[in-house]
TrEMBL record:
Official protein name in the record: Alpha-ketoglutarate-dependent dioxygenase AlkB
A Pfam match: 2OG-FeII_Oxy_2
Amino-acid positions noted as binding Fe cation in the UniProt annotation, renumbered to this chain: H119, D121, H175
Cofactor: binding details: Binds 1 Fe(2+) ion per subunit.
Annotated source species: Marinicauda algicola
Cofactors: Fe(2+)
Top-level taxon: Bacteria
GO molecular function, one term: broad specificity oxidative DNA demethylase activity
Length: 220
């Protein structure tokens, strides 16, 4: 486990193979009802290479006209998002140190050529609540920068079962996924592999901790 004063934590192999498989099963059952969609960049409408869906009361979406936002309904089906698997509430409780439960689980599916550009997670009102993310399936090259648009970055390999926590200052650190390494995991069923699923858990609305003050409650 890597831990640093920045609030970035990489919990290597936090989920064992059985926990990963159970999570994949929970994800696939929900994706049946809440299919992956292709998000598009604000203004340009350029399609992203990662496909997405969400679980929980709120989901992160983006399109040409309305940009980045959270909403309660799937942009294609208009249905409410499926509920959050219990295992993800448990994970949040175990690693986030945040008193309010997560409200959104963004499901990112990376096919062999997919990547995610450098960005800062900044669309949440709960600005200080950690972001917790899980890697499932093929390994990925994850690149972490700092709080500014430029400056040095560090590359890390995220393998299936790894959990990343962005808390404290690192909550506002730039990051992205440069590539996946196709065929490095047998976790996902045929039809989904080669590929990688990332589950990103976020608190969106301020909740109790966020109401407590501008800085919110310090995570335990
Ligand atoms: O796929 C990942 O590991 C990172 C995903 C991410 O940064 C995001 O969804 O905001
Ligand atoms: Fe992110």
């Amino acid at each position: 486990m890597l831990q640093s004063e920045t609030g970035f934590r990489l919990l290597k192999g936090h989920l064992d193979r059985a926990a990963q498989a159970a999570l994949v099963e929970a994800v696939l059952a929900r994706v049946d009802r809440s299919p992956l969609f292709t998000p598009a960049m604000p203004r340009t409408g350029r399609k992203m290479s990662v496909r997405m869906t969400n679980f929980g009361p709120l989901g992160w979406v983006t399109d040409k006209d309305r940009g980045y936002r959270y909403q309660a309904a799937h942009p294609v089906t208009g249905e409410a998002w499926p509920n959050l698997p219990q295992a993800l509430f448990d994970l949040w409780e175990a690693v986030s140190g945040w008193p309010d439960p997560p409200e959104a689980c963004l499901v990112n599916w990376y096919g062999p050529g997919a990547r995610l550009g450098q960005h800062i997670d900044a669309d949440e009102d709960a600005k200080f609540a950690p972001v917790v993310s899980v890697s499932l399936g093929d390994s990925a090259k994850f690149r972490l920068g700092g709080p500014t648009p430029k400056g040095p970055t560090t590359s890390l390999t995220l393998d299936s079962g790894d959990v990343v926590v962005l808390a404290g200052p690192a909550r506002r650190f730039r990051h992205g996924v440069d590539r996946i390494y196709p065929g490095t995991s047998t976790l996902l069923p045929p039809g989904w592999r080669p590929g990688r699923i990332n589950l990103t858990l976020r608190r969106v609305t301020k909740g109790q901790a966020g109401q407590a003050g501008d800085r919110g409650t310090q995570p335990a």
